[in-house]
Amino acid sequence: MRTGEIDDWLAGRARAHRFRVERRPLGALDGWSFADDTGNLVHHTGRFFSVEGLTATLGEGAVRSWQQPVIRQPEVGILGILAKEFDGVLHFLLQAKMEPGNRNLLQLSPTVQATRSNYSTVHGGSKVKYLEYFAGAGRARVHTDVLQSEHGSWFYRKANRNMLVEVDSSTEIPLDDDFCWLTLGQLGELLHRDNLVNMDARTVIACFPQPRPATVALLTDAELRSWFTVERSRHDVDIRPIPLDEVEGWQRGENTVERADGRYFRVVGVRVEAGSREVSAWDQPLFEPVGTGVTAFLYRRLGGVPHLLVNAKVEAGFLDTLELAPTVQANPGNWRHLPAEDRPPFLDLALNPPSDRVRYAATHSEEGGRFLNAESRYLFIETDESQTPLQPPPGYQWATPGQLGALTAHGHYVNVQARTLLSCVNTGAVQL
């Protein structure tokens, strides 16, 4: 498929199926209820996911303690992209997938994007297409298979298998109407478009194995890992699940669970119709953030080599305290009530960068299966010594894209927002 044909193809897939998302009161969601003893919002099967409470206490930072709702989904799902050579060129099988939280509903997703409950058909629906290449034995050559975290501010210790598998060029792959083959270069072009390549595809692309150029980094790989280990070990955190009924500062109404001051996010309910999914209709809760986020890597060329300014960021839902995040990862509205000195470093620069220093900018949806209209503006911004000193603030360090990419071969090092930006590097969407 030519890149210019993607829009018409997606429009055709949208016409081929019935897609509809309507808000519904949380108390009226079919199959969901608030547990009598905890107030947790749970599915009647005990599967899929639940909305519970979380309490967090940190040893440092502008906000050192809080409570919030959180999504608890202990199942490990599969995010997998199937690859195959056509005429000597590697292509990747992407799916036009509807997710209820996407503002435009239909986006390009991995070949397989499914929770264990989905691919084990707990819902009683149809089977996940192409699953056999990822869950079967010996059907494809594995290039990547690594557990990676998801959004640490909204999920509690959630992880998915990020997989890239390749079949031999002689293998016949029946092509479903909702799937298409695209090259890496095409994916790079499409990553310049807003809300087109979904989060799950981006995180898998970030984990694609990449050749490491013979460049000299400011820190060796061992020094970078040592710095990361020190950062992870020095933080004193106390993070525990609690019943949703006990979360302070949040209130449960007929339609939502939200804060009285309207900040951060709210829990809402939706009724979904999706003709192309394994189940054609269902109800579920979603997290709806307030406002659009900004996520940016500030970078410099040090010794002629591009270096990204990474942040060892603590998020309450991480399995192990912190992961490497972009320089800036924030929803600006969540910080406006605080003094300027308590806001995230470099936030103003990410919000108002010099136009001639922006090397990449696009708005991407976050996880559309659990979040409603959750979007962030993703950027790469070239900086200098006056903006980003060689000796960065505590919690920040310089790393090359190659070093960060190598860490994606291991779980729980690089967070999902940083992986979105790495996917732009891996596909050539940005040239640093």
From TrEMBL:
It comes from Streptomyces alkaliterrae. The lineage of its organism: Bacteria, Bacillati, Actinomycetota, Actinomycetes, Kitasatosporales. This is NDP-hexose 2,3-dehydratase. One of its GO terms (molecular function) is lyase activity. It holds the Pfam family Hexose_dehydrat. Residues 4-207, 222-425 form the dTDP-4-dehydro-6-deoxy-alpha-D-glucopyranose 2,3-dehydratase domain. InterPro entries: EvaA-like, EvaA-like_sf.
